[in-house]
Please model this.
Amino acid sequence: MIKMSTINYPNGARPYHESKNLDNHSGRGATLEKDINASNTYYKDLNIALIYKKPTPIQVVKVDYPRRDRAKIVEAYYRTPSTTDYNGIYKEKYIDFEAKETKNKSRLPLQMIHAHQIKHLELVHLHGGIGFFIIRFSYYNKTYLVDAPLLIQKIKKTTSYAIDYDWFEKNGHLIPEGLYPRLNYLKVVEALYFKEEK
Model:
């Protein structure tokens, strides 16, 4: 049996290979956040876009100082984030989005989307930025991109505690999955928000 070795770039980086379809579901079990972060690294490495995960604010409560140069946080807690999960720039446009993953096969519970996230994405839209939600239904291994104003309008009109999966099938845009990028959500962004430029 002949072993094939991988040839890397001079800087040590491994080459990317686009995979249009992954039918073997080898990505099952990977979290949405990991998939988005890997995709963002791909976009950055190829100078396609610059998009980052925002750090969750931490409130430090107690610090131990065993030595002057060895400060150690011994008690802290996560504060409620004031905005969304990700932001950055694509084709000179500001991008901002929230990512949610649910194991519920029939609906997305609205308790997963917070009032401060809705308010923030409304402001992004008001100021001309691109705002959306990435929603994964892990039961089906399907991930949708949904325009923020559209989902926010649905949330405000509904009297239910959740939005049915069928609504996302009709109003969301299925994000292509592959190896590089893992989630090609910018392909959907391109089709949805930049179509008039073509």
Summary: DSSP finds five helices and ten strands in the chain. Helices lie at 32-45, 115-126, 148-157, 165-171, 185-193. The domain at 20-197 is CATH 3.40.1350.10 (Trna Endonuclease; Chain: A, domain 1). The chain has one domain: 20-197.
